[in-house]
Specification:
376 residues, Butyryl-Coa Dehydrogenase, subunit A, domain 1, Butyryl-CoA Dehydrogenase, subunit A, domain 3, 3 domains, four-stranded antiparallel β-sheet, 14% strand, globular, binds flavin-adenine dinucleotide
Length: 376
Amino acid sequence: MLTFDRAELPAEAETLRAEVREFLKSNSARLPRPNSDFTTGHDPAFSAQLGARGWIGMTWPLEYGGRGRSFFERYVVTEELLAAGAPVSAHWIADRQSGPLLLRYGSEQQKAAYLPGITRGESYFSIGMSEPNTGSDLASVRTTAYRMGDGYLVNGTKLWSTDAHRNHYMVALVRTEPASDNRHAGLSQVLIDLKNDGAQVRPIRNMAGGEDFNEIVFTDVLIPEDRVVGNPGNGWEQVTSELSYERSGPERFLSAYRVFVEFIKAVGKNPLPHQSAAIGRITAHLATLRRMSISVAGMLEEGKTPAVEAALVKELGNNFEKLLPEIARLALSGSPPSEGFRQAMTDTLLLSPSFTLRGGTREILRGVIARGLGLR
Ligand SMILES: Cc1cc2nc3c(=O)[nH]c(=O)nc-3n(C[C@H](O)[C@H](O)[C@H](O)COP(=O)(O)OP(=O)(O)OC[C@H]3O[C@@H](n4cnc5c(N)ncnc54)[C@H](O)[C@@H]3O)c2cc1C
């Protein structure tokens, strides 16, 4: 069953919104080409500035560098950063999902070792789920980490790992026991030090000309046993719980937001009737998705794991992200586009094929939703 609990942003979250806007205004020089896609813009100095303000890992306990703030407050910070097109990719995955994963399943030693660096905006993580023959069918991963003395010997290949060439660590889903009839058994998550463990990281060029994702090859990479996250064999439960964090945030419907901003600037104060209708249509989509995403933030705040609701936010949000440039383009056709609109459109259209792939494809999400509704 799908349940979207009613949730409102509390007053302190709105106070924080004003602070974030002020910060972004005074740092506008760091946004020469704003892009609301969370994977664009890798700026460690900017991430460190956010860390110093307490805006990374902000829901985590104080002892690990967190600020003990609510998921609603985190929601507002992420929403404002994306809407402004700020360069957030360096710390994004660590803040959104690797940190929360360690907080929930990691050992005390792991939490103390990794979380404070994340909250300072200095330590960046990649996701190591997909492989050359494993994407949608995640349980079929073939990378192995078998016991060897006091550690684990890792062999295999991970693919499409965002920013692995720039990030410090990866949480990799691996097989620690040979495959059996129970496909979800024998999987574990391990921490890889991307700079020091000896993994080979090869960037892959994307259609927009950037090098954001990578192939990572492990050939007899030996890691110490304290790098296993949670209990060995518990990888499937952990990786699926991680996806609730991955799929529900505003980055799943705001990737094309700068196109909307430039569209509104381009039509000016006196839009034609069909342009007003386009603004209304986009706003209605945004308002609905936002309420759903805030509801998921509220459920995370209560310690729930709203995996199906998160899948629905991502599925509807990704479709909207692809629809937005199309609505704007049609509504502006006939008028020469402004330079800002042209730039935002170019950047967004080159990235948009990935919106419905990364974090789980449309078909897979629809399957998750159908199962949640008891339809399969
Ligand atoms: C920009 C970008 C960044 C990414 N970053 C990361 C990352 O950081 N870490 C990471 O681990 N992965 C990452 N990925 C990989 C992403 O998660 C996978 O591409 C995605 O899960 C699909 O897997 P696949 O590419 O192997 O395609 P496949 O699983 O081979 O799917 C191919 C097509 O078949 C369809 N299909 C597959 N199975 C079914 C089914 N059962 N029913 C119906 N249709 C089906 C799919 O929907 C898809 O259209 C990234 C991908 C992109 C595009």
